[in-house]
Amino acid sequence: MRTPRSFRTSALSLVAAGALTASVLVGGGGSPAVAAASPDLSVTNVTAHLQQLQSIATATGGNRATGRPGYKASLDWVKAKLDAAGYTTTVQSFSTSSGTSYNLVADWPGGDPEHVVMTGAHLDSVAAGPGINDNGTGSAAVLEAALAWAASGNSARNHLRFAWWGAEEQGLLGSNTYMSLLPTADKDRIDLYLNFDMVGSPNPGYFVYDDNAVGNFARDAMTSYYTSKGIPWEYIDVQGRSDHASFRSYGIATTGMYSGGETTKTSAQAQKWGGTAGQQFDPCYHRSCDTISNIDTTALDRNLDMIGHMVWRYADHDFGGTTPPTTPPAGGNLLTNPGFESGATGWAGTAGPITNNTGRPARTGSWKAWLGGNGSTSTETISQQVTIPSTATAASLAYWIRTDTAESGSTAYDTLKVQVVSGTTTTTLRTFSNVGANATYTQASHSLLAYKGKTVTVKFLMTEDSSLQTSFVLDDTSVTTS
């Protein structure tokens, strides 16, 4: 969390036995809904994530600050975890007074693209220390929620997006950059942004953001969760100190949680939360002692499960969008927009490859997915989530592909991998390359029967080197079962 001016809290909740349950939560933008079962996310996994961030800081001068090697190493590590889990990741670079910084944004395939639920945390520390509570805890908890969703096999009504911001400590520069460059239509698609900045303070409190009236429905869902678990909470107005402010300024609903920083815990707060009155919530706030030892595991575990609850709950919240499509009958195509004639509808991944550009022909119609052909170092993906019925006796992925290249020889410089992502496991079914390129459309198919009863992501991943171009053009895809 960035250096404060001042902020206020109000003690509005002491939990009584038999108070509100979390089974019915206040809704927004649609009817009240019954919440999905809250996941029990692994604090052991989060602790391992924090240890990795500590190791990165230790190896790179003791911090993970913007413009320092530790920040980029942290981002690269988080990105690798998300890529392996099947997310489509984007790295956005921007300039600061301390050097180049980066945002990392991860999209989970599927869900209504007109209704986006976004969850984020800042990844940078201050230069004085490794920043394991501020904000390793938020970053690690959001990462674990994202990985757990990928492994859950769940399908979301809404499109899920996760973000790790750079240069928050310099004044919310990363999230401000992201929002300032995001097209207005894409801003309007974000229904909710959840922010988690410090969730494992060593002398913890449980503060819920209360500085965005349009986000009251999510704020109330969060406080209802704490109430149901017997955890007292207080509202806090953080006055623009963290990245939710970048979204709030555009009228987007926001809320978040904060376990306390440099302010002092009162006697009343110690009575209801435990810990030490007269001591800071985080005595190592913005200091070199903000290490892996500067964490309260109980608070971290409680807040991790709350974050999971909020992600799961709003993944299926009715913001007025369409419900997920039902599984087509046996023999039908499980893919949405399989021939790309509706543009990118139904597909996640890199913007641009799905095109009606006449530079390469479609097999049928006018649209196709043209991956590569750049003649420069690049990575492009398209992907879509499908559920293979548990009753399937056969299941098949098929597609038509043509490849042309300016490369020569027997070295695979440019590749297209056909992959299936199931939970945290990515399986490559086939790899095409510039070697043996065939400029005539041919059909390929692969059995998916091993995934029956599971929700998986079909993914096409293109990697091109810095020299000559190779174009991989896909059309008329299908996932069928019987």
CATH architecture of the largest domain: 3-Layer(aba) Sandwich
Please provide the count of β strands. Answer: 21
Q: What is the radius of gyration computed over CA atoms, rounded to a whole number of angstroms?
A: 23 Å
CATH superfamily of the largest domain: Zn peptidases
What is the CATH topology assignment of the largest domain? Answer: Aminopeptidase
Order of helices and strands: EEEHHEEEHEHHEEHEHEHHEEEEEEEEEE
Low-confidence blocks of residues: 11-36, 323-331
The first-level CATH class name of the largest domain = Alpha Beta
Helix content: 10-25%
Q: Look at the helices and sheets and give the structural class.
A: alpha+beta
Q: How far is the N terminus from the C terminus?
A: 53 Å
The largest pleated sheet is described as: 9 strands, mixed
Please tell me about this protein's structure.
The chain folds into two domains: 8-315, Aminopeptidase, CATH 3.40.630.10; 348-481, Jelly Rolls. The radius of gyration is 23 Å and the shape is globular. The longest helix has 21 residues, at 132-152. The protein has helices spanning 43-59, 69-85, 132-152, 173-181, 184-188, 216-228, 244-248, 267-273, 297-315; strands at 8-13, 24-25, 33-34, 88-96, 99-107, 112-122, 158-165, 190-196, 207-209, 233-237, 254-258, 348-349, 354-355, 368-372, 378-387, 395-405, 415-422, 425-433, 442-447, 455-464, 470-481. β4 (88-96) and β5 form a beta hairpin. The chain has 482 residues and is an alpha+beta fold. It contains nine helices and 21 strands. It is 23% helix and 29% strand. Mean pLDDT is 89; it is low at 11-36 and 323-331. The chain has a nine-stranded mixed beta sheet, with helices on both faces. The chain has a five-stranded antiparallel beta sheet with strand order 12-15-20-17-18, with no helix packed on it. A five-stranded antiparallel beta sheet has the order 13-14-21-16-19, with no helix packed on it.
